[in-house]
């Protein structure tokens, strides 16, 4: 296999990130790759073409992808982009494979060996390749910044000669990576923060950040986590009690941030219009799950909507709203994964298809969709001789 890497300029509307930073281009060159960066690819992430050129990359055009052995992207390639790739090329990106079987079939027919970074297994070895964590971390931070920008009061308590400004009350629903970062950011800005989660283990994490944990902590809740750390499905009775507690709590909040996003499924509804109606005038809500339908009733994709007097922020791709930081982390995730595909002695590509990272993330290979979660039994496989 060859050693030419093509870094594509993103074509999806409003995608501001780029798949390679100055640091990762240097790293790839050290691994033995020649690098072609599509003109303007890093412009929105504060990386001018000249900075790539200064470290030895060549600035190219979309047609240069036809010669590439590896193509690095942020988003899954479009049909038009796929048509310009050569059969056998490796494509690494955030593929959003759930519900997009036709797009996977297109990549298979083109003979691409494609990898979905969001399918990276949650194991110690792969922590530095975990794009879900790196991007969710930034999304949680940015959610608080977006909320503060439209909230018409200060977040921290301020004691002045003219009087006291009370601290804003922020409620974070979900204490995963994004939620914990939202909690930490709101606390840094001086807000009074509370949070909820369905996992008992989250209580300690929330408390460690100085926030108050909100949940019905009965015996069912205490046994609500599996040995693997996942949440068990709760009884209808518990769900009703928890919903009542959350509804009562939300009515006293200034800012609510929801973070429940499940890959491949519609986002669960966490906040109803009735809950929003009970909030204080001028309150703000941020929905991090808008790309999957949203956690908040009435959220509008890509907009700040006035729902029952609450400003509901429905911006997709929150990490992409701080592209310089998001690109730096995403590019590092990519190059760390790419490094596992390089033979250190010969400095050439060589896929170890038995590697658990390769098996977990590979979507298409040799003319077929190969990931077991996305193989369509009703679709015939591609005849490799026709590629």
Automatic annotation (TrEMBL):
Chain ranges of the Alanine dehydrogenase/pyridine nucleotide transhydrogenase N-terminal domain: 6-139
Occurrences of domain Alanine dehydrogenase/pyridine nucleotide transhydrogenase NAD(H)-binding (ranges): 148-314
UniProtKB keywords: NAD, NADP, Nucleotide-binding, Oxidoreductase, Translocase
Parts of the chain that traverse the membrane: none
A biological process term (GO) from this entry: NADPH regeneration
PROSITE patterns recorded: ALADH_PNT_2
Enzyme class: translocase
GO cellular-component term (any): plasma membrane
UniProt KW Hydrolase keyword: no
This protein's name: proton-translocating NAD(P)(+) transhydrogenase
Organism encoding this protein: Rhizobium leucaenae
């Amino acid at each position: 296999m060859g050693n030419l890497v093509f870094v594509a300029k993103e074509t999806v509307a409003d995608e501001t990130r780029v798949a390679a930073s100055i640091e990762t281009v240097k790293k790839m060159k050290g691994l033995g790759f020649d690098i072609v960066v599509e003109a303007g690819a890093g412009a929105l992430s504060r990386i001018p073409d000249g900075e790539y050129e200064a470290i030895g990359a060549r600035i190219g055009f979309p047609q240069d992808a036809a010669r590439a052995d590896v193509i690095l992207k942020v988003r899954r390639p479009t049909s038009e982009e796929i048509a310009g790739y050569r059969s056998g090329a490796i494509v690494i990106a955030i593929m959003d494979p759930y519900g997009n079987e036709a797009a996977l079939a297109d990549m298979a027919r083109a003979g691409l060996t494609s990898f979905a970074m969001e399918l990276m297994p949650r194991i110690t070895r792969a922590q530095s390749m975990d794009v879900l964590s790196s991007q969710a971390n930034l999304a949680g931070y940015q959610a608080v910044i977006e909320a503060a920008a439209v909230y018409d009061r200060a977040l921290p308590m301020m004691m002045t000669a003219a009087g006291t400004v009370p601290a804003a009350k922020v409620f974070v629903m979900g204490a995963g990576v994004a939620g914990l970062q939202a909690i930490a950011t709101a606390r840094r800005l001086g807000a009074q923060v509370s949070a909820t989660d369905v996992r008992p283990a989250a209580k300690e994490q929330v408390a460690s950040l100085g926030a108050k944990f909100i949940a019905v902590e009965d015996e069912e809740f205490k046994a609500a986590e599996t040995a693997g750390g996942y949440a068990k499905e709760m009884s209808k009775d518990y769900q009703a009690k928890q919903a009542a507690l959350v509804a009562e709590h939300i009515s006293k909040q200034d800012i609510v941030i929801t973070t429940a996003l499940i890959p491949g499924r519609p986002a669960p509804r966490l906040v109803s219009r009735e809950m929003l109606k009970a909030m204080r005038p001028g309150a703000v809500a941020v929905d991090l799950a808008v790309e999957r339908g949203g956690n908040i009733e009435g959220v509008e994709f890509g907009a700040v909507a006035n729902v029952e007097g609450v400003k509901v922020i429905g911006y997709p791709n929150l990490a992409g709203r701080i592209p310089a930081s998001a690109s730096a982390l995403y590019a590092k995730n990519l190059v760390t994964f790419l490094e596992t595909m390089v033979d250190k002695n010969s400095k050439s590509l060589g896929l170890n298809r038995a590697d658990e990272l390769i098996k977990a993330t590979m979507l298409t290979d040799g003319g077929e969709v190969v990931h077991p979660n996305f193989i369509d039994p009703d679709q015939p496989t591609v005849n490799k001789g026709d590629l």
